[in-house]
Design a protein that fits this description.
The chain has about 270 residues and is mainly α. It has 2 domains: about 200 residues; about 60 residues, no CATH class. Helix content is about 75%, strand content about 0%. Strand 1 and strand 2 form a beta hairpin. Helix 1 runs antiparallel to helix 5, helix 3 packs antiparallel against helix 4 and helix 4 packs antiparallel against helix 5. The longest helix has about 40 residues. It starts with a helix and ends with a helix.
Length: about 270
């Protein structure tokens, strides 16, 4: 059954290369969306309950299913391996229930694949000593391996599209970033419109009243000095908070890299 062993080892090697990719090491740079789903109509992100269980629960459940001894009869080994496959299949589909495989989910998915590959290899070794290559257990084992490849193909195909879509959205967000000049920022503070300068709602009536009170009470020299200082000192923090275009573009690039890593994995495991 050398062909099956070779296929198992190839998937394991390819998976290791993808997971070790810098994209996954930088997973913290991408917003985690385990509790979010994209609406089919408007494209906006809406919060709703995901079907996917928390990552820790997924890992624990899979550990229980895959950590079985290889001293069982061949038919029992295949049955237990089938149970572990069912866990991967269900969790993989739940991960992309929102149409997106986030970095945390991706890392867990590939970790489960590696563990599963290792167990399949162990089971294949046991079968080679206990049953003939034409036995049904070998055929069942090959079916499980092929079924797992199909699951990953479907999940990663969905995620590839989502990553590219997410990258486009982030590029759009970067292009829409508008940061007002320091002069305008300070000027808005001087006329009692500091909230509007910081991205809040524009309230002309309140600003007019505040300016009139300054003039009537002759406090405008003091208030203008305070407002000037507030505007000058607050601009740096405002600029840093508002200008996220560079961060958005970096995140978009990471999304494209993740999509390309998935594409390479699928190409190598056709």
């Amino acid at each position: 059954m050398g062909f099956l062993k070779s296929a198992i080892n190839q998937v394991g090697r390819d998976m290791g290369r993808v997971v070790s990719n810098q994209v996954f090491k930088d997973a913290h740079s991408i917003p985690i969306r385990r509790a979010r789903s994209r609406s089919a109509s408007g494209g906006n992100t809406q919060v709703q309950q995901r079907k996917a269980a928390p990552i820790k629960e997924v890992a624990d459940e899979f550990e229980k299913s895959i950590n079985f001894k290889t001293g069982y009869r061949p038919s029992t080994l295949i049955s237990k391996l089938g149970g572990a496959f069912t866990v991967i299949k269900n969790e993989a589909k739940a991960f992309v229930d929102d149409g997106y495989l986030d970095p945390e989910e991706s890392t867990q998915l590939f970790t489960m694949l590696k563990q599963f590959n290792d167990k399949v290899s162990d089971v294949e070794d046991v079968l080679s000593f206990t049953v003939d290559e034409s036995a049904k257990e070998y055929q069942q084992l090959e079916k499980i391996v092929e079924a797992l490849k199909e699951v990953f193909h479907d999940v990663l195909s969905v995620s590839i599209k989502a990553c590219y879509q997410r990258a486009d959205e982030l590029e759009q967000m970067a292009s829409e970033q508008q940061v007002i000049s320091q002069g305008r920022y300070v000027g808005l503070h001087l006329i009692w419109m500091s909230r509007y300068a910081n991205g809040g709602e524009k309230n002309t009536a309140k600003a007019v009243i505040a300016n009139l009170l300054d003039i009537l009470t002759c406090t405008w020299p003091i208030t203008r000095l305070v407002l000037l200082i507030k505007g000058l000192t607050g601009y740096a923090a405002y600029q840093k908070e508002q200008d996220q275009s560079a961060q958005y573009r970096e995140m978009a690039d990471l999304e494209r890299q993740r999509a390309q890593a998935y594409e390479e994995f699928l190409e190598d495991n056709q």
